[in-house]
User: Fold this.
Amino acid sequence: MANNHWILTVTGEDHDGIIAEITGILFDLRFNLEDISMTILEGEFAMMVVFHESGSSKKMATLRARLEKCEARRRLNCFLKPVMAKLHRGDRQARGTVKYLITAIGRDRTGIVHQISQALAQQKLNITDLNSKILGYGSRCLYSMLLEVDIPLKFSMPKLEKILQKLRKSLKIEIQIKPVESIQL
Assistant:
């Protein structure tokens, strides 16, 4: 028997029932869902599902056939890909790192995502999740971004604060950083 992890990407015009149908197909075939991310982007549905299969190639062929029918009926695009690298079950960050949340909010302008992600990449810091939205309407709308970042235990936080301060000034937005562990619910 194979022991594989797969990622299924589903995109298309948003309408009700997509998640229920896709997860129903996976459930019927007894695939174990391990990670899901879903959002609506400008009216377009986008979902990624990581699942585990420990069955035959016939089971995967059945999955592909059922997804093709779903694609045609719901006007979706489904893409299956084996997961090449996998964290151990329950691991959500690289060992020897601390998960931080970085928030950015301010007037919408071109380059916010690029400049912040580039600054983090130059420091070899890994962004593990990124979500952004336009809040409000018209001339008073704001841009909001939330990033999860794995930061090595030995990384100089004063150095990162200095980099973020420069970005605050150049982008004219508020940027905050906090370790996930310090957030009180």
